[in-house]
Amino acid sequence: MIAAESFAYKAALREARLIRVAVWVTLIAGFGVTALIYAPVIWLGVLSISVDPLAGLPGAFTMRWYGSLFTSTGWIQPLFISLEVAVIVSVLCMVSAMLVGRALPRLKHGRGLLLGAFLLPLVVPGIVVGIDIFIYYKMFLTFKMGLWSLVLVHFIWAFPFALIGMLVISSRFDVRLLEAAADLGAAPWRRFWDIERPLLMTGVVTAGMFGFMLSLTELPRSIFVAGRTQTLPLFTWAETMSRGSHISLIYCLNTLIAVISVALSVLSVWLLGRRVKS
């Protein structure tokens, strides 16, 4: 009996040590991945307030570049175009993600196949999508490249993320609530508005945030379908490639875009996590 208790104690001790090692490995790996993601953003922000950011190392700090940014006007029109496209894509993502996200979990057959088809754009390189859209719509359908081609290609890229955010909420929806409301005489529109809409609203908002954020920062697909329309990422990319580009536009604009993108990402994850816990 004593030998068995001693063996069990040693086994439990070894298991506890393995758990501690696993926790430390997870923490180190997590902090490492987080540093790889956010360190470039922080470094970009530090360089944006450096006197000589092109040196690659921070030196004396100044806000002069941000002052130059807000006194120049070349980036304002691309910003408004980016916001216009992002808002349209956001609305499209909210509506389409809600429609597909409501229907997909209730399908009895072909659900996995349809989900794979919807998520396929995630594994297709952005340059390939941009070239395909350009060749098909421009050469075969004579579709004019510009605002609506940007909306189309941004929506293709953003919709899978919006759908995933929506499915996190809709897959947990209890359809028995709708059945009970139907038994009480509620019409389909009333069931949707009073029961489904409040419970799915977090997923709808998250889908809209993903659509807005991904559209606002999209570059590789936009290069091929923008035509003469210039979004903010295209503007900063062109300024970066130009020898006469302004340092304030390169570093400050990209810093602001990165901060907005990270903030929207954190807000989306927080909303999803809050809804799942509740």
What does it look like?
The chain is mainly alpha-helical. It folds into two domains: 2-55; 73-277, Orthogonal Bundle (MetI-like fold), CATH 1.10.3720.10. It is 77% helix and 0% strand. The protein has helices at residues 2-48, 64-71, 76-103, 111-119, 126-140, 147-170, 176-183, 188-216, 222-225, 232-241, 247-277. Helix 2 packs across helix 11, helix 7 runs antiparallel to helix 8 (188-216) and helix 10 runs antiparallel to helix 11.
Which structural traits does this protein have?
mainly alpha, MetI-like fold, 11 helices, 278 residues, 0% strand, 77% helix
> How much helix, percentage-wise, in residues?
over 70%
Global morphology: globular
Distance between the termini: 47 Å
Q: Which second-level CATH architecture of the largest domain applies?
A: Orthogonal Bundle
Number of helices: 11
Number of domains: 2
Structural class: mainly alpha
Order of helices and strands: HHHHHHHHHHH
Unreliable segments (pLDDT under 50, ≥5 consecutive)? none
- Tell me how many strands there are: 0
Give the overall average pLDDT. 80
Question: Short description, anyone?
Answer:
The model has no long low-confidence stretch (mean pLDDT about 80).
